[in-house]
Amino acid sequence: MSSAPLSLADRFRLSRFFRGEAPTSAPISLGHRRIFILPTQRGLAFVLLIVLLLLVGFVYSNNLAYLLGFLLASIFFVAILHSFKSLAGLTVRAGRQPAVFAGQAGAFNFQIGNPGRHSRYAVHLALQSELAIGLAPAEIRTATLYQATARRGWLQPQTLTVSSLYPLGLFRAWAPLRFDNPLLVYPKPAKRQLPFPESGDGQVAQGLSRRQGDEFYGLRPYQRGDAIRQIHWKTFAKGQGVFSKQYAGAGSSELWLDYQQAPGHNSEERLSQLCRWIVDAEKAGLRYGLVLPNLRVPPDTGAAHYRQCLQALALF
Question: By the 8 A CB rule, do 46 and 76 touch?
């Protein structure tokens, strides 16, 4: 938890008081170097009250006004120490977070620990969302804060601000922290649910295809994701419902999702459509593979394969 020493220029750099120091992946222990304290509006009003009391005591030679003024002044200065102690010693580390699709709120998990023997009250955490927690002695809590996502790829969390107004709200103690703990953002799935790409030559290289020699086996109810050429149009024309043709050996069918076949005016639109196909294929229980200009993922099924394909799109 030790940090590299700061130069004199870095210590007084203005951005350090608001954005924090360089990002780190290690746990951070809050101490003198990380915690800053300034009076709040209530604290400034408290100072004004003290000045007025001392002024009244001086003008009217009123010892009671002096006594009350010095008493409030002592409370004011003692509050500085307690404001610092409300955060001092806390440990903060970045946790793991699940990947999300672009446009969804990214959830960043942080573990806040209180190794001391005293409880901490009203510890305020802020990223883009905010959360207030309390910590018992030797307690570790996980706080989830949210940040908006707009583009695919790795998203670094913004500055996490840990703050407290304890005990009287006269001072705000805060510690800006930055973590090197990116969240993976998948492309946003296309809104239109287009049919899967089809193979014109019957090969497994593109689209949903069946092995040569498969024979017609029967009909089954249509499932989302079935290729258009599998639909039995005669039953549909007779008003008997939508059915898909089933072939013997169809269990070995493979769906290839090719970047070159995905519709779109640019790469982002193509990736968005590929993302939609992957989501639909996974829901339909299909065996699918992914073909990108720089990567080829063999057909498979399951959660690990699903994440592998989406990660390939996110980092393309």
Answer: yes
- For 239, the token pair is 């008003």
Output the CA torsion sign for 189, 194, 196, 199: negative
Cα–Cα distance, 7 to 14 (Å, whole number): 14
Alpha helical stretches, state H, the chain: 8-11, 41-60, 63-85, 233-237, 267-284, 303-314
H-run or E-run covering 25: none
Report the distance separating Cα 274 and Cα 313, nearest Å. 8
CB 119 within 8 A of CB 135: yes
pLDDT at 213 over 50: no
Measured CA to CA, the distance from residue 211 to residue 37 in angstroms comes to 71
Q: Can you say whether the dihedral through the CA atoms of 206, 264, 195, 251 is positive or negative?
A: positive
For the residues of 69-129, what is the DSSP string, one character each? HHHHHHHHHHHHHHHHHTTTT-EEEE-----EETTSEEEEEEEEEE-SSS-EEEEEEESSS
Rounded Cα–Cα distance for residues 166 and 40 (Å): 12
Asked if residues 37 and 76 have their Cβ atoms less than 8 Å apart, the reply is: no
Strands 243-247 and 130-135: what pairing? Answer: unpaired
Q: What is the pLDDT of residues 24-55, one digit of tens each?
A: 999 999 999 999 999 999 999 999 999 999 99
Spell out the alpha helix ranges (H) of 138-266.
Answer: 233-237
For 162, phi and psi rounded to 5 degrees? -100, 125
Q: Which two tokens stand for residue 5?
A: 């020493």
Whole-prediction pTM: 0.78
24-to-50, 242, 299, 309 alpha-carbon distances in Å: 43, 56, 38, 29
Sketch the domain layout of the chain as residue ranges.
Answer: 8-185, 207-314
Tokens describing residue 6: 């700061």
CA 145, CA 285: separation in Å to the nearest integer? 33
